[in-house]
Design goal:
Layout (H helix, E strand, L loop, with lengths): L2 E6 L3 H13 L3 E7 L3 H7 L4 E2 L3 H6 L5 E4 L6 H11 L3 E3 L7 H14 L4 E3 L7 H11 L6 E9 L9 H20 L3 E8 L6 E7 L4 E7 L7 E8 L3 E3 L8 E3 L2 E3 L6 H4 L1 H17 L7 H17 L6 E2 L11
Parallel strand pairs: 1-2, 1-4, 2-3, 4-5, 5-6, 7-10
Antiparallel strand pairs: 7-11, 8-9, 8-15, 9-10, 11-12, 13-14
Helix pairs in contact: 4-5, 5-10, 7-10
This protein binds nicotinamide-adenine-dinucleotide.
The site of nicotinamide-adenine-dinucleotide has 25 residues, from helix 1.
Length: 324
């Protein structure tokens, strides 16, 4: 049996999901695609049905499961449409652009009584993060005390506002830090450099671990995500950014990827396989709609904290039993 998948949004991320589904995922076939740009859809169709309206794709009898990779502001309503149709979805991060919209999605899934949504926080499937977590959980560096995160992009597009460094980029660190430490965040403090880029965010977990993050949207030299976990007896951190080292024009070293696609290629592939398997087995994988809500709710409060100089107490609602 193969799973009939529809893909909504065929930009940088959607095209990569489409490629992974077609070339690297077993037991699936892409039956329908949708993009606001009809030319883009036509270019990528390869026999899949092109459907102009994302809601029509979700309702289509030819689609059993949906990948949502359209812009952030579309996610919540499309995720709710998937829940209404009873179809599983891999929804790109962030789940929504406001905590209230994210909560609407959670409430819809709770009403349904079963988990159909996986949020595209793919770092949970990245081999480096997975190994760091295994080492920490195995007690090999002692109790974690600090997690240092670095999130640098080569260049942000013009439309990327200061708040989006938090709501679109830093949400990854919110999610991966909660997952790595298995802890909820309690407070946040924001320090912005002059001009607003980079931004430094320090969070404390409810157990008192410190999570520091630099988000630098215009670091120029390349895409660079790094994490170091400091324990009472040792540390674990990511190693080199690529698998090879070059000697070239008086330079020795690694190349930096231009964006997230090469850096997280394995994570996206493993995430997709886990999503398909979760639909086959009925056992949810990855970040849940609740995790998506928490990341968006914290991001929203961090954006408010950017305007002040105080440490902010983070407020998150009670986790519904569906996500225990
Ligand atoms: N998980 C990750 O690492 C990661 C990385 C990058 C982007 N993302 C997320 O993926 C999503 C897409 O990002 P991107 O970089 O591919 O953006 P993009 O701008 O390259 O692509 C977005 C595509 O969606 C299409 N679109 C716009 N509105 C639409 C609609 N209503 N219905 C269908 N298609 C629509 C556009 O025509 C475009 O082709 C964003 O939510 C982004 O935050 C996640």
């Amino acid at each position: 049996m193969t799973l009939a998948v529809g893909v909504i949004g065929l930009g940088v991320m959607g095209a990569e999901h489409l490629r992974i589904l077609r070339e690297e995922t077993a037991r699936v076939r892409v039956t329908a695609i949708c993009d606001a740009d009809p030319e883009r859809s036509a270019q990528l169709a390869q026999g899949a049905k092109v459907i102009a309206d994302p809601r029509a794709l979700i309702r289509s009898d030819e689609v059993e499961a949906v990948v949502i990779a359209s812009p952030d502001a579309t996610h919540a309503d499309l995720a709710i449409a998937c829940l209404s149709a009873g179809k599983p979805a891999l929804c790109e991060k962030p789940l929504a652009t406001s905590a209230s919209d994210a909560l609407r999605v959670v409430e819809k899934e709770v009403e349904l009584g079963r988990r159909l949504l996986q949020i595209g926080y793919m770092r949970r499937f990245d081999p480096a993060y997975v190994e760091m977590k295994q080492l920490a959980v195995g007690g090999q560096i002692g109790a974690p005390v600090v997690l240092h995160n670095t999130h640098r992009n080569a260049a942000a597009p013009d439309w990327f506002t200061g708040a989006m460094a938090v709501t679109n980029s830093f949400v990854h660190e919110i999610d991966i830090s909660r997952w790595l430490l298995d802890a909820e965040m309690a407070t946040a403090f924001v320090h912005q450099s002059s001009g607003g880029d980079p931004v430094f965010i320090t969070m404390e977990t409810k157990r008192g671990e410190i999570v520091s993050t630099e988000v630098f949207m215009n670091a120029h030299y390349g895409y660079h995500v790094h994490a170091q976990l400091v324990g009472r007896f040792g540390t674990v951190q990511m190693a080199q950014p690529s698998d090879i080292v070059t000697n070239k024009r008086s330079h020795h070293g690694h190349f930096w990827p231009v964006n997230w696609v090469p850096r997280f290629r394995n994570a996206y592939r493993i995430q997709m396989a886990a999503w398909v398997q979760s639909i086959e087995t009925g056992c949810p994988a990855g970040a849940s709609a609740w995790d998506g809500y928490v990341a968006t709710a914290i991001a929203e409060q961090v954006v408010i904290a950017m305007k002040g100089t105080q440490k902010t107490k983070l407020l998150i609602g009670a986790r519904p039993a569906l996500y225990a």
